[in-house]
């Protein structure tokens, strides 16, 4: 087993009222590995939290403000958050590369630096810094130790999974990425269904029903129910079902009025920490089969607090016998703001305690000697993208430019509009995907952002007062002559980056160091969820529960990598 404790197989026995001693011992040993891995993750990340946690604290440990990375880049994170000897090393490395590529120009030196940074990003030490090749600067021992420890703590590696051809019509209506996810997770769910002797699959955050319909068509003897909160999801689910029915009937020459499957249903409902077992059961009742009901609860898009809400339902509803869960969008997950001030050592006695936040959940990380003494902060954004989207020097440079423009936009809007009058904190302004041609200048970038920010469907967490003030300010800016607005925006950007030729370099370096810890932050969240289940389930049965983490998706296809599997 990899020291991370991430399993390649679930290693579980079928659900049973009697757990053999050998199985219980193996489960206890596995839990011990996860605890040790969690202990090492905590120790490593707490020391390096200035790379990802930008909260500002009062003297008593209370969070005064939740700053995010795009705000703090303007605050010169490179100088304030990176050790001086690391900065000195990278300065010398840049000088050395410029000398090595003097005849080729600065672009060649920059490309060479990006190549070295891409190695560092994967927690690999470039050989030239350890062998003194061509008089390369010596890497500081503290940076070397940082990379070596991060490499040791990386969760078990991905296996490249080839998606085989499948005759199920549901797969023919998906993108390649979706096919990869649905095929692998769908088959994993079907295996858990058979092992659990379940007759119902409950898909939380079902969206348009990609996963639900795949399982439904593969397992006609199992009732599949999708749950999601929006009209668009419900409409998409219905349209997708119609498309599958049309293609299926065209191939089988069946009656066009026949439903695609009698075992498929959709429920529009918001699942949250406040969703009680009785409430969920009443929603499911019209669709459940007669007789004994055994449910497998699953989720592929359990964004933010939806994943811990699903854990809570799994624990509290007896007829849910197993779970298959993939987490995502950790930046939408809430944290316990009082974590640093919490000194209680008692474990809640009842598993029915309603959760108040998404992280941390386990007693292991909230009480006792291994209690967390840090917040993830904007590290939640890193955890949501543990596999960097840039793989080449040009992509890394484009990422740095995008972050630089994004940071400047946040500061510009804060200076123009101030914080939110209701929360008294700076707002973050989501502007959607940015086309590469918008990265040419801050003028082009900002003007597109101003248009996007006026859309009512964006940034729904703002107060009405702030939205009105911002809309009025943006309208006034866009009414200015194009040349005048362009000059004003460009002057502002240059005031933040006085040396345009080298302004992106610290951002590139800082981003790479942050991405070294990104997969470890996700691992910490996942291990916390696993230990939370182990603690609560052990209290009900008196035996070690069957819970594991498994690698599933290829990083070349999907940023989601780990599935949490649990059997009662």
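Q: What amino acid sequence fits the structure above?
A:
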């Amino acid at each position: 087993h990899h020291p991370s404790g991430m399993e390649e197989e679930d290693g579980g026995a079928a659900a049973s009222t009697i757990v053999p001693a050998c199985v219980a011992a193996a489960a206890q040993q596995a839990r011990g590995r996860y605890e040790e891995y969690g202990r090492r993750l905590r120790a490593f990340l707490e020391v390096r939290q200035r790379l990802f946690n930008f909260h500002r604290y009062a003297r008593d440990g209370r969070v005064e403000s939740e700053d995010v990375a795009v705000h703090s880049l303007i605050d010169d994170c490179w100088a304030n958050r990176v050790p001086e000897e690391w900065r000195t090393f990278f300065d010398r490395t840049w000088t050395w590369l410029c000398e090595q590529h003097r005849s080729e120009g600065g672009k060649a030196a920059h490309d060479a630096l990006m190549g070295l940074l891409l190695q560092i990003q994967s927690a690999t030490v470039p050989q030239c810094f350890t062998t003194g090749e061509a008089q390369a600067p010596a890497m500081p021992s503290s940076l070397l130790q940082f990379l070596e420890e991060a490499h040791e703590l990386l969760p078990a590696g991905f296996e490249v999974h080839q998606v085989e051809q499948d005759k199920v019509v549901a797969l023919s209506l998906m993108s390649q990425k979706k096919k990869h996810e649905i095929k692998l997770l769908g088959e994993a769910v079907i295996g858990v269904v058979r092992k659990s002797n379940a007759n119902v699959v409950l898909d939380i955050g079902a969206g348009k029903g990609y996963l639900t319909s795949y399982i439904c068509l593969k397992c006609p003897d199992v009732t599949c129910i999708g749950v999601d909160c929006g009209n668009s999801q419900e409409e998409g689910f219905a349209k997708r079902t119609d498309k599958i029915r049309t293609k299926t009937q065209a191939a089988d020459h069946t009656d066009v009025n026949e439903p695609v499957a009698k075992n498929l249903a959709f429920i529009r409902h918001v699942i949250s920490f406040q969703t009680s077992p009785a409430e969920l059961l009443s929603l499911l009742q019209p669709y459940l089969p007669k007789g004994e009901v055994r449910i497998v609860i699953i989720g592929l898009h359990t964004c933010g607090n939806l994943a811990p809400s699903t854990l809570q339902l799994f624990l509290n509803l007896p007829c849910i016998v197993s779970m298959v869960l993939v987490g995502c969008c950790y930046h939408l997950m809430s944290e316990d703001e009082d974590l640093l001030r919490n000194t209680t050592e008692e474990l809640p006695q009842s598993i029915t305690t309603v959760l108040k936040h998404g992280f941390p959940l386990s007693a292991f990380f909230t009480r006792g000697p291994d209690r967390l003494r840090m917040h993830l902060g904007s590290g939640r954004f890193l955890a949501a993208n543990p596999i960097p989207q840039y793989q080449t020097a040009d992509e890394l440079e484009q990422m740095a430019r995008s972050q630089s423009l994004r940071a400047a936009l946040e500061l510009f809007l804060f200076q123009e509009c101030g914080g939110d009058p209701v929360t008294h904190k700076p707002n973050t302004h989501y502007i959607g995907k940015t086309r590469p041609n918008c990265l040419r200048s801050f003028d082009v970038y900002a003007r597109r952002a101003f248009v996007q920010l006026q859309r009512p469907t964006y940034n729904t967490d703002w107060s009405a007062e702030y939205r009105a003030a911002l809309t009025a300010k943006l309208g006034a800016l866009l009414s200015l002559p194009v040349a005048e607005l362009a000059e004003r925006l460009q002057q502002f950007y240059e005031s933040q980056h006085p040396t345009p030729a080298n302004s992106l370099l610290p951002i590139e370096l800082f981003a790479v160091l942050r991405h070294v810890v990104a997969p470890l932050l996700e691992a910490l969240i996942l291990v916390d969820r696993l230990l939370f289940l182990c603690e609560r389930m052990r209290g009900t049965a008196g035996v070690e529960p069957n819970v594991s983490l498994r690698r599933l998706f290829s990083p070349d296809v999907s940023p989601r990598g780990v599935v949490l599997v649990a059997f009662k």
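Q: And what stands out in the fold?
A: The radius of gyration is 26 Å.
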